[in-house]
């Protein structure tokens, strides 16, 4: 379908533009004070390209909406892509308030990882099951994503704060944890790299196995290290699984997902190892000098403000609109479904964050860790809860 | 009470940290807000006297202090957070999947998750969110929220009302934003005032001492949002009473008309038809996804008629039913009547309505009928007399037949897979022949039966599962949520900013405070002192670098 082609081209374009914009934001960092004008220009170009990229992504959204007949926020690919887009939007808004180009250097790449990650999931347009056929679905999902996008900026600022401030002279609690966060990002990149590689090779391995009493087949796009539990390989001439996914891993298609996780760890770890070999330092330590001209106070402020702005939006979308929709669809506005519970956990977490900010001693580094933790909870809800603890909201 | 009189003449309540009028730190009380040894004053509650910090003698004082501590509040929130997470490790009891070996929690958790599952079940985590301790936790948060709000709101409100434009110098130079300027003319000050007014500051001028203030109402935001939360908690308590909230689940067969449970016999429902539609696999938009994931339903719908019993006042009289509503209920489109809402919640397709059997001779290859009979599966008779003189007795009826460890039983009471043990009495005979018959099964117990029973025909129907709900608490939840949202937005999207100008001979002191967004207030100040010789306020925060 033509419209759909246009749509995916636009998403691709947006991705490339974000990449280019990141380079321009990067250029604002190196030059010294005397070149202030050049710096400002570089930042302006960066934000302009970001906005063009955002517009391209908006076109992606609209064309896909027209093509499918419903708002494209109903499966994992669509929702994650939309989340990436709201992150960029949140960045654009905060950029105009704080005029901090470095933020782009960190926020955009992470948003890009999210979008790339999204593209690893099936991109087919899926028809809506009856419970999803409601305007409240769009209202709820878009507001949640926007809230999460704004909260994401606090994560980006928090990471920057930590890179700037954590003592890198030795391996201590701070630098170790920061390095772990970096490593986790490498795992995401690893997932993207390995999935893309085997997609290009068009790798397939089909298995037959029993799930919930029914014989089903599943199609691995990565060589099976972990096969499905008691599965039989149907495709010929591909790698035999090394072991089987243990039975206690539940949920739809547990084997294939587990296999992807294993591959992400392997590839991510190799990538991380290579980077460490080249830079001969912790990644955090290598990045630290980049940020020496940024005022930590400003980062702390951005981090806190984005929580202050994002929290009400998230509450509205993730709890209130969610409840309204659930009331109309299922007749109960709250059902303790895992997805709902994790929205509540997120909400509790940021409420705790805001209250801690009221007392002394929680500004700066501690806040930054909290911002990282909050974002980890959001990602957990998106990835682990969607794919593993599947409930009503399962995107499978 | 030990009131504290400040040198400016204002009389402060006991426990005040900063004079309500002029802000001068009150000696002996600085430990309360932790101001000792710090350059900057703690301005969170403007140094007001809070009950929790002032009185600590009686048991009530102690409880009050305990619950009004933000630290305690945060701990409660964190505990609730962790507890909530724990509840998602394994499914809650209501989410035990339909394909489980058993939906009995005592079996399910151990069977599927082993020893951890067993522990989970034994700790009661399979019903975590309705456990007494989880409720207590939420209630404690509620109590804490009320006490802590009262503790702070009242004094803060008074202090902000009583504040004077003229402030003590120590108050000013211990603010985070502060500067001293010399050679400032009255004209310069006028310019600043004008600029501040343009930025919507409210100016109070007290003999040249200037207070510019905006967004004070945002200080009430947290208290407003806490009220919203309290309303939500109260609504949740109300919801546990049957007066405010009831819920019934009914199964209605197609063509069936039954009284709606929970309506005191006032309403009846008729299920005209259940419709399930699926997405067209030829729709090229979805073709690929459907091919991947299989059939995707597009609509669950029950066409119903609701009847009202108009003759209920006469006891024993035949019900007189008057149709009051005819509607198609779909997911996301419930039906409403009186105070009830009816939701499409479940379905069962292809249940057996009735089955027709015939009797024939076992070794008759033509299987010509010696008489037939029809069993109504929702209401089977125990004996069927055939015209030809045969008598069939229903010995066992399994509506939903399964073999459980070799023992035949019925999995549910719904006629989804009916099977029977029948005694066939040939005409004029008292010795029956036993047959077992079900879908695809026809077993002759002895192998010597002369007559055989076979399925001739059957009819199917669908069943709709509907939830009938009365909920008077919804308006409270909506009210609470709305107030909460107003409160958070009020507190988060606006800030309380104050700028003080204190004239000295030949110059001024400038100080400023905001409860958040320091970046914003700095911009405000920069804008208002433009083109004047006033020094920009310096950020005195001791950075924890
Ligand atoms: C889940 C429950 C709660 C939520 C969602 C909540 C929400 C909020 C929010 C959004 C603020 C504004 C924060 C800011 O302006 O930065 C706030 C302030 C506050 N909350 Fe809560 N709160 C909750 C529970 C509690 C509890 C249990 C306490 C009791 C200790 C408490 C005490 C306070 C205090 C003292 C303030 C500051 C008021 C002020 O600045 O004048 N809150 N709350």
From TrEMBL, chain A:
<dbReference type="GO" id="GO:0005886">
    <property type="term" value="C:plasma membrane"/>
</dbReference>
<feature type="transmembrane region" description="Helical">
    <location>
        <begin position="6"/>
        <end position="25"/>
    </location>
</feature>
<keyword id="KW-0201">Cytochrome c-type biogenesis</keyword>
<keyword id="KW-0472">Membrane</keyword>
<dbReference type="GO" id="GO:0020037">
    <property type="term" value="F:heme binding"/>
</dbReference>
<feature type="transmembrane region" description="Helical">
    <location>
        <begin position="340"/>
        <end position="356"/>
    </location>
</feature>
<feature type="transmembrane region" description="Helical">
    <location>
        <begin position="79"/>
        <end position="98"/>
    </location>
</feature>
<feature type="transmembrane region" description="Helical">
    <location>
        <begin position="175"/>
        <end position="194"/>
    </location>
</feature>
<feature type="domain" description="Cytochrome c assembly protein">
    <location>
        <begin position="269"/>
        <end position="393"/>
    </location>
</feature>
<dbReference type="InterPro" id="IPR017562">
    <property type="entry name" value="Cyt_c_biogenesis_CcsA"/>
</dbReference>
<keyword id="KW-1133">Transmembrane helix</keyword>
<dbReference type="InterPro" id="IPR045062">
    <property type="entry name" value="Cyt_c_biogenesis_CcsA/CcmC"/>
</dbReference>
<keyword id="KW-0812">Transmembrane</keyword>
<feature type="transmembrane region" description="Helical">
    <location>
        <begin position="137"/>
        <end position="163"/>
    </location>
</feature>
<feature type="transmembrane region" description="Helical">
    <location>
        <begin position="45"/>
        <end position="67"/>
    </location>
</feature>
<dbReference type="Pfam" id="PF01578">
    <property type="entry name" value="Cytochrom_C_asm"/>
</dbReference>
<feature type="transmembrane region" description="Helical">
    <location>
        <begin position="261"/>
        <end position="279"/>
    </location>
</feature>
<feature type="transmembrane region" description="Helical">
    <location>
        <begin position="105"/>
        <end position="125"/>
    </location>
</feature>
<protein>
    <submittedName>
        <fullName>C-type cytochrome biogenesis protein CcsB</fullName>
    </submittedName>
</protein>
<feature type="domain" description="Cytochrome c assembly protein">
    <location>
        <begin position="74"/>
        <end position="196"/>
    </location>
</feature>
<dbReference type="InterPro" id="IPR002541">
    <property type="entry name" value="Cyt_c_assembly"/>
</dbReference>
<feature type="transmembrane region" description="Helical">
    <location>
        <begin position="368"/>
        <end position="392"/>
    </location>
</feature>
From TrEMBL, chain B:
<feature type="transmembrane region" description="Helical">
    <location>
        <begin position="472"/>
        <end position="494"/>
    </location>
</feature>
<dbReference type="GO" id="GO:0016020">
    <property type="term" value="C:membrane"/>
</dbReference>
<feature type="domain" description="ResB-like">
    <location>
        <begin position="70"/>
        <end position="525"/>
    </location>
</feature>
<protein>
    <submittedName>
        <fullName>Cytochrome c biogenesis protein ResB</fullName>
    </submittedName>
</protein>
<keyword id="KW-0201">Cytochrome c-type biogenesis</keyword>
<feature type="transmembrane region" description="Helical">
    <location>
        <begin position="220"/>
        <end position="238"/>
    </location>
</feature>
<feature type="transmembrane region" description="Helical">
    <location>
        <begin position="132"/>
        <end position="154"/>
    </location>
</feature>
<dbReference type="InterPro" id="IPR023494">
    <property type="entry name" value="Cyt_c_bgen_Ccs1/CcsB/ResB"/>
</dbReference>
<keyword id="KW-1133">Transmembrane helix</keyword>
<dbReference type="Pfam" id="PF05140">
    <property type="entry name" value="ResB"/>
</dbReference>
<feature type="transmembrane region" description="Helical">
    <location>
        <begin position="72"/>
        <end position="90"/>
    </location>
</feature>
<dbReference type="InterPro" id="IPR007816">
    <property type="entry name" value="ResB-like_domain"/>
</dbReference>
<keyword id="KW-0472">Membrane</keyword>
<dbReference type="GO" id="GO:0017004">
    <property type="term" value="P:cytochrome complex assembly"/>
</dbReference>
<keyword id="KW-0812">Transmembrane</keyword>
């Amino acid at each position: 379908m033509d419209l759909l082609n246009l749509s995916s081209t636009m998403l691709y374009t947006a991705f490339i533009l974000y990449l280019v914009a990141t380079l321009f934001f990067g250029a604002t960092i190196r030059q010294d004070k005397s070149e202030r004008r050049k710096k400002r220009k570089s930042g302006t170009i960066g934000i302009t390209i970001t906005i063009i990229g955002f517009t391209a992504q908006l076109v992606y959204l609209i064309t896909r909406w027209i093509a499918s007949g419903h708002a494209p926020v109903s499966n994992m690919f669509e929702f994650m892509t939309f989340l990436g887009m709201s992150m960029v939007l949140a960045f654009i808004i905060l950029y105009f308030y704080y005029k901090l180009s470095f933020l782009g250097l960190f926020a955009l790449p992470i948003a890009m990882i999210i979008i790339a990650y999204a593209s690893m999931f099936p991109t087919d347009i899926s028809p809506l099951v009856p419970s999803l056929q409601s305007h409240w679905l769009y209202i709820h999902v878009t507001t949640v994503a926007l809230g999460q996008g704004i909260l994401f900026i606090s994560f980006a600022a928090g990471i920057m704060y930590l890179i700037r401030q954590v003592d890198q002279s030795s391996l201590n609690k701070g630098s170790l944890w920061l390095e772990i966060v970096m490593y986790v990002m490498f795992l995401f990149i690893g997932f993207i790299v390995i999935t893309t590689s085997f997609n290009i090779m068009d790798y397939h391995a089909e298995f037959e196995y029993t799930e919930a009493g029914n014989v089903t087949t599943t199609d691995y796009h990565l060589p099976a290290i972990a096969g499905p539990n008691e599965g039989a390989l149907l495709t010929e001439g591909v790698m035999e699984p090394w072991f089987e996914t243990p039975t206690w891993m539940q949920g739809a298609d547990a084997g294939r997902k587990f296999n992807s996780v294993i591959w992400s760890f392997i590839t991510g770890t190799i990538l991380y190892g290579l980077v460490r070999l080249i830079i001969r330092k912790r990644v955090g330590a290598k990045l630290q000098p980049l940020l020496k001209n940024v005022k930590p106070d400003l980062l702390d402020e951005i981090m806190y403000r984005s929580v202050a702005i994002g929290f009400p939006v998230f509450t509205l979308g993730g709890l209130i609109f969610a409840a309204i929709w659930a009331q109309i669809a299922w007749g109960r506005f709250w059902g303790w479904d895992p997805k709902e519970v994790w929205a509540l956990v997120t909400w509790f977490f940021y409420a705790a964050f805001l209250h801690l900010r009221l007392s002394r001693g929680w500004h700066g580094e501690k806040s930054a860790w909290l911002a990282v933790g909050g974002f980890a909870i959001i990602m957990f809800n998106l990835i682990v809860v969607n794919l593993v603890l599947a409930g009503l909201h399962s995107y499978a | 009470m030990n009131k504290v009189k400040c040198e400016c003449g204002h009389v402060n309540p006991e426990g005040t940290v900063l004079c309500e009028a002029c802000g001068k730190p009150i000696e002996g009380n600085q430990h309360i807000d932790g101001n000792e040894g710090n350059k900057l004053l703690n301005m969170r509650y403007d140094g007001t006297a809070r009950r929790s910090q002032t009185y600590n003698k009686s048991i009530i004082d102690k409880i009050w202090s305990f619950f009004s501590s933000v630290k305690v509040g945060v701990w409660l929130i964190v505990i609730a957070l962790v507890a909530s997470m724990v509840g998602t490790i394994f499914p809650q009891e209501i989410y035990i999947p339909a394909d489980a070996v058993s939906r009995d929690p005592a079996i399910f958790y151990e069977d599927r998750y082993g020893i951890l599952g067993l522990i989970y079940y034994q700790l009661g985590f399979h019903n975590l969110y309705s456990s007494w301790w989880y409720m207590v936790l939420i209630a404690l948060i509620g109590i804490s929220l009320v006490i802590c709000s009262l503790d702070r709101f009242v004094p803060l409100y008074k202090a902000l009302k009583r504040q004077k434009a003229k402030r003590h110098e120590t108050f000013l130079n211990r603010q985070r934003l502060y500067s001293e300027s010399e050679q400032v003319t009255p004209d310069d000050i006028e310019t600043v005032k004008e600029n501040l007014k343009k930025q919507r500051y409210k100016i109070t001028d007290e003999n040249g001492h200037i207070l510019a203030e905006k967004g004070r109402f945002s200080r009430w935001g947290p208290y407003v949002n806490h009220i919203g939360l309290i309303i939500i908690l109260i609504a949740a308590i109300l919801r546990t009473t049957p007066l405010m909230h009831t819920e019934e689940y009914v199964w209605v067969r197609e063509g069936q008309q039954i009284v709606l449970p929970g309506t005191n016999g006032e309403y009846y429902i008729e299920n005209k038809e259940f419709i399930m539609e699926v997405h067209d696999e030829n729709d090229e938009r979805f073709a690929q996804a459907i091919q991947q994931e299989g059939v995707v339903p597009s609509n669950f719908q029950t066409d119903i008629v609701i009847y009202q019993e108009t003759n209920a006042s006469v006891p024993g009289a035949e019900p007189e039913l008057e149709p009051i509503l005819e509607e198609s209920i779909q997911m996301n489109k419930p039906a409403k009547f009186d105070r009830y809402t009816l939701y499409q919640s479940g379905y069962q397709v292809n249940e057996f309505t009735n089955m027709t059997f015939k009797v024939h001779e076992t070794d008759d290859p033509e299987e010509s009928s010696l008489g037939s009979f029809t069993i109504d599966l929702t209401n089977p008779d125990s004996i069927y007399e055939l015209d030809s003189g045969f008598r069939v007795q229903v010995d066992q009826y399994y509506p939903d037949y399964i073999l459980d460890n070799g023992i035949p039983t019925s999995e549910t009471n719904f006629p989804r897979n009916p099977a029977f043990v029948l005694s066939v009495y040939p005409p004029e005979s008292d010795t029956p022949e036993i047959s077992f018959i079900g879908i695809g099964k026809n077993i002759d117990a002895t192998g010597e039966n002369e007559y055989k029973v076979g399925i001739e025909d059957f009819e199917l129907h669908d069943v709709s599962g509907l939830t009938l709900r009365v909920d008077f608490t919804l308006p409270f939840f909506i009210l609470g949520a709305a107030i909460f949202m107003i409160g958070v937005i009020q507190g988060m999207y606006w800030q309380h900013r104050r700028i003080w100008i204190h004239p000295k001979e030949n110059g001024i002191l400038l100080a400023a405070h905001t409860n958040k967004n320091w970046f914003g207030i700095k911009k405000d100040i920069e804008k208002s002192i433009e083109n004047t010789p006033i020094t920009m306020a310096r950020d005195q925060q001791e950075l924890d670098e």
